[in-house]
UniProtKB/TrEMBL annotation:
Coiled coil ranges: none
Native source species: Streptomyces longwoodensis
Key words of the record: DNA-binding, Transcription, Transcription regulation, Two-component regulatory system
One GO BP annotation of this record: regulation of DNA-templated transcription
Database matches in SUPFAM superfamilies: C-terminal effector domain of the bipartite response regulators, TPR-like
Protein name: OmpR/PhoB-type domain-containing protein
Length: 281
């Protein structure tokens, strides 16, 4: 089974889509796919679909959605050419793929690709390369990880409480990888190449201190000292106005070092993520 959630939802069994078009079954599949090969409790599925006020028929309706998903799975299994089974077991059925467990349901992926797990593996390799000072490998691995994203996670799924929480978690993981990839590029002297990207990012993440610090450093290294200081002033104004906070001591040191034309000594430390409190929508 191939699972994609880092953008539009796409789940394929043996190359054939099993992604429903109806919103509620789509939510169920999205939550199961995010937790592939792990049990998702019935209570979590009900919370995702109806929140704090589920109807009396919630369990029965959920079973209907599961049946609809199994019909799609069954159609995909029947349409796909048979695959040799190395252990001599019978061919999988829809109930083997979407399994009823005592406390909930489990989507048995049975191998295949999973973009979230691939992202986490590549990002982890990139972080270890950063720690080892191999910035070329770190930039390459993190760029490959970020390339798996085709948009907002589950962009075409109506999200309830459970999916919203998972989407926020995935977005935070993406931001961590992005932060470190930019840090690696700065270490490699790619400051001019980063300017356009960072211009967009600081406008989207208006209080993300690490991104602003990286933008300041890239501008300074590109001979644009005045603009680097303007970035700091805009960030400070936003933090004070929206959150009642001053920039971190680390960012203040970077601003002072740019004023003195010696930013290399007090640049944001590798891996520093700064404040991530508000994003522009």
């Amino acid at each position: 089974m191939d699972i994609e959630v880092l953008g539009a939802l796409a789940v394929r069994e043996r190359g054939i889509s099993i992604t429903p078009t109806a919103p509620k079954p789509r939510q169920v599949l999205a939550l199961l796919a995010l937790h592939a090969d792990r049990v998702v409790p019935v209570s979590s599925l009900i919370d995702e679909l109806w929140g704090a006020a589920p109807p009396r028929s919630a369990r029965t309706t959920l079973q209907t959605y599961v049946l609809q998903l199994r019909e799609l799975i069954s159609a995909a299994l029947q349409a796909a050419p048979p695959q040799p089974d190395t252990d001599g077991a019978a061919r999988r059925t829809a109930k083997d793929v979407l399994v009823t467990m005592p406390s909930g349901y489990l989507l048995a992926a049975g191998g295949g690709s999973n973009d979230v797990r691939t992202f986490e593996r590549l990002a982890g390799t990139g972080y270890r390369a950063m720690d080892a000072g191999d910035y070329t490998a770190a930039a390459r691995q993190l760029r490959e990880a970020l390339g798996l994203w085709t948009g907002t996670a589950l962009a075409d799924v109506q999200a309830g409480a459970q999916l919203e929480m998972e989407i926020r978690r995935l977005e935070e993981n993406r931001l961590c990888a992005l932060d470190q990839r930019i840090e690696a590029d700065l270490k490699l002297g790619r400051h001019r190449e980063l300017l356009a990207e960072l211009t967009v990012l600081v406008n989207r993440y208006r209080t993300h201190e690490s991104l602003h610090g990286q933008f300041m450093l890239a501008l300074y290294r590109s001979g644009r000292r005045g603009e680097a200081l303007e970035v700091y002033q805009r960030l400070r104004a936003t933090l004070v106005r929206d959150l009642g906070l001053e920039p971190s001591a680390e960012l203040q040191r970077l601003q002072r070092s740019i004023l003195m034309a010696h930013p290399e000594t007090t640049a944001l430390a590798p891996g520093a993520t700064g404040r991530r409190l508000v994003t522009a929508t």
